[in-house]
Amino acid sequence: MTNSIIQLVSMPEGKTLEFKRDISSPKNMLKTLVAFANTAGGRLIIGVEDESREVIGVEDPLDEEERICNLIADSIKPRLVPNVELISIEDQTLLRVEVYPSGSRPHWLKKEGPNEGVYVRLGSTNRMADRELIAELKRGAQGKSFDEQTLPDRTVDDLDFDAATACFERHRKLVKKDLESLRLVARHQGHLVPTVGGMLLFGKDHEMVFPDAWVQCGRFIGKDKADIYDHIDIHEHLPVAVERVMEFLKKHAMRGADFSELRRKDIWSIPLSILREAVVNALVHADYSQRGAPVRIAFFDDRIEIENPGILLPGLTIEDMLQGVSKIRNHVIARVFRELDLIEQWGSGVRRMFSESEALGLPQPEIIEVGMRVRFIVYLAEPLMLPTKTKPGLDQVGTQSPTQSPTQSPTQSPTQSPTQLSTQLSTQSDGLVQRLLVALKDGDKSSGALRSVLGIKHRPTFRDNYLHPALDAELIEMTIPEKPSSSKQKYRLTGKGQAVLKSGMGK
Predict the structure, then answer these.
(1) Can you give the pTM of this predicted structure?
(2) Can you give the pLDDT at residue 179?
(3) Torsion, CA 181, CA 147, CA 162, CA 472, rounded to 10
């Protein structure tokens, strides 16, 4: 017992541990207890100097124990019943107040009231909760999630069913009755209306309802945010946003090739599977009720940070996450991501990321709470240095190496033959661009005609996976380049595109 107490006293203060010399300032002590109850529980040790960790003990411990119990009973609502006990160490008596995560949250200080007296624990500090966080605490105590709530002023037509169908097409055929089973819609007063999760995932104008439900990506020069090299804002549906983020990260990574097996294997300078898992976690566990805080991806020379709004859910600590404990903030989003195979297995993601980092010889990732956000940091094996003289256009697409010409296609070297380009495109885009070239083999076609030939209803899917890659590789061109948005716009093969077809592509 004594050894465990000595060990406890030597531990740093954090989310679930705090030391107090005495209770001469009871308000701070009460804030800590409220924060413990509203967050992940914790232990308050009284009789220890919090900076030097000198054990000074408590005078009149029995009287102080009674005083603490009375302060808690008189000052905190709803009623909080912690475990208060006396412990001995080095001939001194300490008071240990242990609080467990409460099912009656949010708790608050009576004098400050239920709107301004709610506190949560962030690291080793107490933070007053705002209105959105208080609502999140209430929902959590009731076993409800924000994305399961209905939006009565919206209709089913506000969901982009074509976009949802496109996302599911590789997994199963989606029919409209599936919207209810997936909880993208729910009944409200006898009518089907979208849920918050439905709007976040597939809402036609989801940012009108949730203006901060988007992703901000930036590539910075060096190891801080003083100088930005490139950035992109991603406003697409959440399942599509995962791919867009990965495309941005690849754009600023280095790629090699492994020819040791029968088929070429791309080798990237960044751990793509770890980063994909971290991006998925951020989108699934973001607190979309918060305002002014999109999901952020920051690519530095030595690391990549993935940051989402929202603190860890009550009862969950970073240590729990490393042990495989998982709590889901957004049940609807998580269910859809699971069906789309973006989530492989519940609760295994964090441990898998740490295990893979170790297997790859990378520094251990970090998970930290920063303000009202959670940040996941992935460290790179070697720094990726950027040139400081030039910056790419913010609309540039593709994977750019530091030595690449601004006009050079990200996947093409200056000396590539049509046959080499054909083979490379086949490897990199799974035949999507090839299909587009074949569709143009017999003449010019509009965007709508091409989508019809290819059987693609979802415009962003066609634009991002077919049209733009072919334009960027200069395999096709516009018939009216001076008016890109013209209703009469069509596309045709370039000489390079024709050469690729003749080399065997699309036969």
Answers:
(1) 0.71
(2) 95
(3) -140
